[in-house]
């Protein structure tokens, strides 16, 4: 399971929880403007926007899970098993493989509006990176400071949904997840009024009773409702520290502790990392399961006119601030 989130305070922020039972050796990777990005069916881009994000580097190629470019456009891929469908080569289309999709969009587009233009002619083509790294069934959230969309390549073609709630999880498809919020319309941040029945005097014995019925399950439909409610009612100051902290708190509402989602003998899904990018400033903040301290990498501290990837292995060891 995974959850993606975007939020605007003074700046715009974008990030995700990556929930999985194993790591692919991911790290924060900066792709500078002159690193040649090759495509299986499209021409190499020898110069493009610089990108920062979480990726596995395989044979020198940055396989991004999520990323943000120097213009502030961001994108994250989340699992979409049983629904994602990729297609054979289509004549007259931009044939891009799913593992090339993040650099394809972030390398060329400054805004969601520009991404929509590329999406009009894209065909997500069914070509594996390698036998060891076959294609993953994904869907994607793409955001800039003013709008967010969700892209789902399904049996009946490519769907591009407006995303007015700024969150995304996994199955089922996004249109259902959005519609399902109707079922929770009576939740409220306020202390609720009694509506149970005429003549019944309810006792508001606890704070937070407006949230009774908010799902708490780890399944993706429950997480969607939980994180949408949390994000849309979130209040925070607009300075950098408050915004980053609040972003981690919102994703903390759907954080997965090891042990609650068993996949096999000694195999559990857990939140491997949580990220939060200040997309305005190009700073990638992250936390890992083993290290609850916030770490940061600023893309502008790298040579963005260079041609070599910068890789930052994840700091995954707890660092306790002893006070005596
Ligand atoms: C599994 C990851 C998404 C996490 C997620 O959504 N979990 C939910 C599980 S579930 O639905 O609830 O069951 C996805 C996100 C990005 C993916 C990776 C990126 O796409 C980059 C490469 C792409 C290669 O084709 C496969 C390996 C890979 C390194 C991918 C492995 C895996 O599929 C990742 C890490």
Report a brief summary of the structure.
This protein is an alpha+beta fold.
Describe the structure in your own words:
InterPro entries: CBAH (IPR047711), CBAH/NAAA_C (IPR029132), Ntn_hydrolases_N (IPR029055), Peptidase_C59 (IPR052193). Belongs to the peptidase C59 family. It is an enzyme of class 3 (hydrolase). This is choloylglycine hydrolase. Helices cover 15% and strands 32% of the residues. The protein has a single domain, classed as Penicillin V Acylase, Chain A (4-Layer Sandwich). The radius of gyration is 20 Å and the shape is globular. The chain starts with a strand and ends in an 11-residue tail after the last strand. The chain has 324 residues and is of the alpha+beta class. Bound molecules: taurocholic acid. Residues 1-2, 18-20, 24, 56, 63, 65, 77-79, 81, 99, 129, 133, 135-136, 138, 170, 220 line the site of taurocholic acid.
Which keywords apply here?
5 helices; six-stranded antiparallel β-sheet; alpha+beta; eight-stranded antiparallel β-sheet; 324 residues; Penicillin V Acylase, Chain A; single chain; binds taurocholic acid; 32% strand
């Amino acid at each position: 399971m995974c959850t993606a989130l975007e939020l605007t305070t003074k700046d715009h922020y974008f990030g995700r929880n990556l929930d999985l039972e194993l790591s692919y050796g991911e790290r924060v990777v900066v792709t500078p403007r002159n690193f040649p990005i090759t495509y299986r069916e499209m021409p190499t881009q020898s110069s493009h926007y610089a990108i920062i994000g979480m990726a596995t580097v395989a044979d020198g190629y940055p396989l991004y899970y999520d990323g943000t470019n120097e213009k502030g456009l961001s994108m994250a891929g989340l699992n979409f098993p049983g629904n994602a469908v990729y297609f054979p080569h289509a004549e007259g289309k931009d044939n891009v493989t799913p593992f090339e999709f993040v650099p394809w969009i972030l390398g060329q587009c400054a805004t969601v509006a520009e991404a929509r233009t590329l999406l009009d002619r894209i065909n997500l083509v069914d070509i594996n990176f390698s036998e060891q790294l076959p294609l993953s069934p994904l869907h994607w959230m793409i955001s800039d400071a003013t709008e967010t969309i969700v892209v789902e390549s399904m049996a009946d073609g490519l769907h591009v949904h407006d995303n007015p709630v700024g969150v995304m999880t996994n199955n089922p498809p996004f249109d259902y997840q959005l519609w399902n919020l109707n079922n929770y319309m009576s939740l409220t941040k306020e202390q609720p009024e009694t509506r149970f029945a005429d003549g019944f005097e309810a006792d508001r014995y606890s704070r937070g009773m407006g949230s009774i019925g908010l799902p708490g399950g780890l399944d993706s439909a429950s997480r969607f409702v939980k994180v949408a409610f949390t994000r849309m009612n979130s209040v925070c100051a607009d300075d950098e520290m408050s915004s980053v902290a609040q972003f981690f708190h919102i994703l903390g509402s759907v954080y997965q502790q090891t042990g609650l989602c068993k996949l096999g003998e000694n195999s559990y899904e857990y939140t491997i990392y949580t990220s939060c990018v200040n997309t305005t400033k190009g700073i990638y903040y992250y936390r890992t399961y083993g290290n609850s301290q916030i770490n940061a990498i600023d893309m502008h501290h790298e040579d963005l006119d260079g041609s070599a990837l910068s890789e930052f292995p994840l700091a995954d060891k707890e660092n306790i601030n002893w006070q005596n």
